[in-house]
């Protein structure tokens, strides 16, 4: 679930606020909040601080929710991400990559 849905449910609806009122409380314009609530933008670190100050849930928790959402979205298409495998190489001297002390 996009974290904007959680903001809508836990912060706005739970407190009987309109989007306009919530935007005013958060100190952002209505369009900024609307973009978050409608999954057109995510929770930035600044928005996380604003949510913490206004509604009490820690900024870290909001950012973790955002990161979890983004990771889940990428994982849905992980099989389409093509990456070459890294293979460790040895140094020119034929040993390991560790530096030798003589």
TrEMBL record:
InterPro entries: Cro/C1-type_HTH, Lambda_DNA-bd_dom_sf, Toxin_antidote_HigA
This protein's UniProt keywords: DNA-binding
Residue ranges occupied by any HTH cro/C1-type domain in the UniProt entry: 13-62
A Pfam family assignment: HTH_3
Gene3D superfamilies: lambda repressor-like DNA-binding domains
PANTHER family linked to this entry: ANTITOXIN HIGA-1
Protein name: Transcriptional regulator
């Amino acid at each position: 679930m996009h974290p904007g849905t959680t903001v809508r449910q836990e912060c706005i609806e739970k407190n009987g606020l309109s989007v306009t009122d919530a935007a005013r409380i958060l100190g952002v314009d209505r369009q900024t909040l609307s973009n978050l609530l409608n999954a057109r933008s995510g929770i930035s670190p600044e928005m996380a601080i604003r949510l913490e100050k206004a509604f009490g849930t820690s900024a870290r928790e909001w950012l973790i929710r955002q990161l979890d959402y983004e990771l889940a979205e990428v994982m849905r298409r992980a099989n389409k991400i093509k990456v070459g495998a890294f293979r460790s190489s040895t140094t020119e001297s034929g040993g390991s990559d560790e530096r030798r002390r003589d």
